[in-house]
Design goal:
single chain, alpha/beta, seven-stranded mixed sheet, five-stranded antiparallel sheet, 16 helices, elongated, binds adenosine-5'-diphosphate
Length: 538
């Protein structure tokens, strides 16, 4: 009886084990990808259905005991040696190998086609921890690789298209700026002449539309340059308090019209001299303060500056622009930094509230460029506060005050009737610039070509204004040629250009220009340049 019982138990155990083995085998056979296992003599112990199908075997069991030279012949005989070498490497070193390899797969019609595999070969160990074989798993990555390649090509194409877009924008903005310079210049002359009330109003419309168009072009250009990562930070020491004050006075006329108070609250513990990119900071401030004034009907606009964290060499300064305008809802706050987003329907706005919807998108990118983040706190019908915290290097007060002292000394000793040579081929722009310079008390000679300008240098001039786009020799060459005869101190040259790109500016400076000014140029800019560059009277 007992023997019978034992035999029964044993049979049952064998059946259970057999079932387990069958289950495990069918799991292995059904594994996705190509799975195979090989013994220490590099002979197949088994494989899954995918491999059996690929090797044209009727069942996976048919592979048992075979070597690569037998099973791979026909589909990839040229690769047998390489496959064997890698297998032996894993079997002897006990180190898993991962590799990308070219192999074969079957297409929908059962034909052999080339495929790229990601293969991992891992050693298998017995109970004594001795290598008894290896397990290979290969995944077909042909499609993924193709996608990656397509993505790479698409990215290259997108990059090229983006570059072309930026270049096109730079070119078109130059072409647009030139006639705009004439429109704005003549509108301003007309406005200053004797006109009746209606004529004055019409001229104001022309000037306002011209300025709006100009800001639109500038915004579009800035945004596309920021998108193409063409903006670079150029840090230099400057006085932040003065920069904010001058920005406020620049924007004060529109606040005055609306009777809004415009103030600066500069914390007395915040340093005034910092190292940063003053151009970029001013652009951020002009956008934020401009918006605050634009959307506020009564109350105030205050710029607040306060230290957040003080260190010996660095300071974290929070700069905030606060207004008592309409405020922005939480929903709109999520979108206002996106390009072209405007809160209300643009057609419902009054004429002073026009905009492009690009200002805050530019501010966002510029603050990111400075390594900080613009944020806004706002309550509907109470007002908004846009703020960011910049990490600035402190500067000992002397560095900037020296620079300013020089400027002051030079400007005080400015020679009254200076001789100027203006090299500009566009007759309308020539006329506008001559008028502005004459109004500033200068004697102006002009030339429409580089060659004539060179011959005119026999006469002595105090300063040269040279347009870069000349018909005969380009302005860069002309500046270089003049620099062979005169140093910057002997003859300052100011390059004038319709292009606002960094590369054009750098090109002018490399050629020997002292300054580069982007058109349109106002009388105020001419006066500042004259104040700075004209040599002291002896
Ligand atoms: P826009 O050229 O229209 O001023 P911005 O990108 O500068 O473009 O601003 C996007 C939108 O955010 C504006 O159209 C306006 O609706 C809203 N906005 C910006 N600043 C303020 C503010 N200080 N108060 C209320 N709304 C504002």
């Amino acid at each position: 009886m007992k023997t019978n019982d034992n035999d029964q138990d044993k049979d049952q155990l064998i059946t259970t084990l057999q079932n387990e083995v069958d289950t495990l085998k069918s799991i292995l056979y059904m594994m996705p990808g190509n799975v195979y296992w090989i013994d220490s003599d590099n002979k197949y112990m088994g494989c899954n259905y995918n491999v059996a199908k690929l090797l044209k075997l009727n069942t996976p069991d048919e592979v048992v005991g075979k070597i690569n030279a037998e099973v791979l012949t026909g589909i990839m005989s040229d690769k047998v040696e390489r496959v064997d070498t890698i297998n032996r490497m894993v079997l002897s070193s006990g180190k898993a190998e991962t590799l990308e390899e070219v192999g074969h797969t079957l297409d929908a019609d059962g034909n052999n086609v080339t495929a790229l595999y990601l293969t991992q070969k891992s050693p298998l160990y017995d109970k004594q921890n001795k290598i008894k074989g290896l397990l290979g798993v290969s995944l077909d990555i042909t499609e993924r690789k193709n996608m990656e390649e397509k993505l790479k090509i698409a990215l290259q194409k997108a990059d090229a298209a983006n570059r072309a877009k930026s270049e096109f924008l730079a070119l078109i903005s130059h072409e647009l700026r030139t006639p705009l310079t004439s429109i704005l210049g003549f509108a301003n002359f007309l406005a200053a002449s004797t006109l009746d009330a209606t004529q004055k109003k019409h001229v104001r419309f022309i000037a306002n539309s011209g300025s709006y168009l100009l800001s639109l072009i500038n915004n579009l250009l800035d945004y596309s340059r920021l998108e193409a990562d063409k903006f670079e930070l150029k840090n230099s020491p400057f006085n932040l308090k003065k920069l904010i004050n001058s920005t406020l006075s620049m924007l004060s006329s529109s606040a005055k019209v609306k009777k809004i108070s415009l103030k600066l609250d500069y914390d007395k513990n915040a340093p005034q001299q910092i190292l940063a990119d003053d151009r970029i900071l001013q652009q951020i401030l002009v956008n934020l303060i401009g918006n605050a004034i634009k959307f506020t009907e009564k109350g105030h606009v205050i710029v607040r500056v306060k230290p957040i964290k003080q260190q010996l060499k660095y300071i974290d300064l929070q700069i905030a622009v606060e207004d008592t305008g309409p405020g922005i809802s939480d929903d709109d706050i999520k979108s206002i930094f996106k390009p072209f987003y405007q809160v209300e329907n643009v057609y419902k706005r009054d004429s002073s509230q026009t905009g492009t919807g690009l200002g805050l998108a530019i501010v966002k990118k510029l603050t990111e460029l400075m390594g900080c983040k613009i944020e806004v706190d706002s309550h509907l019908s109470k007002g908004s506060c846009f703020h960011f915290t910049g990490h600035f290097q402190r500067i000992p007060d002397r560095a900037t005050s020296l620079k300013n002292a020089n400027l002051l000394k030079k400007s005080k000793s400015r020679k009254k009737r200076s001789r100027i040579l203006l090299v500009e081929d566009n007759e309308l722009i020539q006329l506008i610039h001559i008028t502005m310079l004459k109004e500033s008390g200068c004697h102006v000679d002009t030339s429409g070509t580089a060659k004539k300008a060179l011959s005119m240098l026999k006469k002595k001039y105090d300063i040269l204004f040279i347009d870069i786009g000349l018909p005969d020799i380009d302005g860069f060459e002309l500046i270089k040629t003049i620099r062979e005869q005169y140093t910057k101190e002997e003859l300052p040259i100011i390059a004038l250009t319709g292009f606002s790109g960094e590369d054009v500016h750098q090109h002018c400076l490399n050629a020997g220009a002292c300054e580069v000014v982007t058109k349109p140029i106002s009388k105020g800019i001419f006066e500042k340049l004259l104040e700075y560059y004209l040599p002291p009277k002896v």
